[in-house]
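Quick one, T. Sequence first:
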Amino acid sequence: MRYLFLVIFFSVLMNAQKNQDKKINVKLKNELATIQKDDQVYRELMQPDASQGQKEKVMKEKNLTKEDITARLWSLMDEQDKINIEKVEKIIAEYGYPGKSLVGEPENETAWYVIQHSPKINQYMPVIKTAADHKEIPFRLYAMMLDRQLMNDQKEQIYGTQGFSAYDGEKESEPIIWPIKDVENVNKRRKEAGFDNTVENYAKRLYGKNFVFKNYTLDEVLKFGTGQKTEEKSLNIELKKELAQIYNDDQIYRELMQPNIKPERKAEIIKEKNLSQEDVGSGLIKLMNDQDQKNLAKVEKIIEKYGYPGKSMVGEPENNAVWYVIQHSPKIEKYLPLVKKASDKKEIPYRLYAMMLDRKLMYENKEQIYGTQIRSIFTTKDGKTETLSFVWPIKDPDQVNELRKNSGFGKTIEDYAKDMTGIEYKKYTLKEALELQKKK
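Structure tokens:
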């Protein structure tokens, strides 16, 4: 039996402590803030819209290699989780649960995150319950951990917060919401527990807008899969390694083009690829295009042999490698149905299909749907090159943030535009965008 553990990210409002300042253990608060950051850093990097700047920041902070970022994220996360649980156990042994009255908000939730991502939920469940009863943490956190404990014990959950997938010895099933006890009243319980959405909307947020919630019986789910194989045995390891290398080759020249690339990393790439000064200058675009063609040829052979090599075949993050190569190729239209099928089967995140669809629409001079594509217009004036970067026109800009949220994107269109272009988001009509293109 295989469980699809969910990493849930909450936005927590910072409240001024005012009269409670004297009670806060500032040293412990700072320590928990660091632990929280360590708990999330690798999980954030697994998001396909993680920026190159963010990756470089983590690489420098954690002293990581490019291979670490592309091929070892899961093992790095597991190692960090073990370190974090050791730290949290020492804190609990000394202070009890470090809640709001001891460390303020949002650090009062840190220990919960670490325990939720550990194999020690049963051991610390009573501690979490006491903390929730005393309002040291929100009740919904206890509800989520209770659901996970019940699912681990193969019992019905209460609040509908946990997802599941089964392994039948050959492939993993599509994810579902683990069976819920008294499903007719689950949304009432969710509201009372502090959740701001129904179980139906919550499921769409996790698995994409096309996901249809169904409450299975416990007997049905327990028949989905028995005797889980280990992930290493079930994956095509040779193909996994090949895709890791293809992804590295896809990114390396793009990384070299980043204006904020560190001199040490730049020198490392130049040495690795045996590049001349001309290569690094005017020849960089050609090198990238040549590499993209080689990658596409490799990927097309892989697709011909295996179909789309998704999560059940090569694991994560290598299941995204083929998507990157197609996204950087002139064959998006040809392979978009294949990517859609892989997304529908949960072999890749739905947001990757959304990004490719947006790019296809932009190339066809049509409005995009999810606001993922940026267009840059280069013009020369008085011998100087000027650049205008903007979000390509969106079909329904008033609803785009809801679409993005339901499709798995972690940022609003406004935040995404600022991260990608450094400027405020501006709505352009299709007519305006096409006029700008004519000025190139």
